[in-house]
Request: fold
Amino acid sequence: MLGKANIEWFVENKVSVMDETKDPQINLNGRSDLAGIASATVILAQIDALRSDGEIYGGKLKEPGVAVDLKKVNGLSHEFFGMDRVVPEARRLISPSPTSP
Reply:
């Protein structure tokens, strides 16, 4: 599962200095103006070290009126999306049926 140690590894291997984590291309929640961004679907797993970041991002998108479909998936962890062959909820979210809301 994605945890603090994994996140630290990604940061250490992506940026040269910690100030780079403030770059709005890396830290979407650090962006000051999200007006004009295309509508978005934000999918959050219940067991995810980044869930609160996703909740903040969804809220920040809504502030300037960006259309956001915020989906919270209970009982699953961060990497569930890549498990669509064995996790029905992941399969449904990746390929929703035409009649799905």
Q: What stands out?
A: The radius of gyration is 15 Å. Residues 51-62 form the longest helix (12 residues). Residues 4-94 form one domain. The CA atoms of residues 34 and 61 lie 6 Å apart.
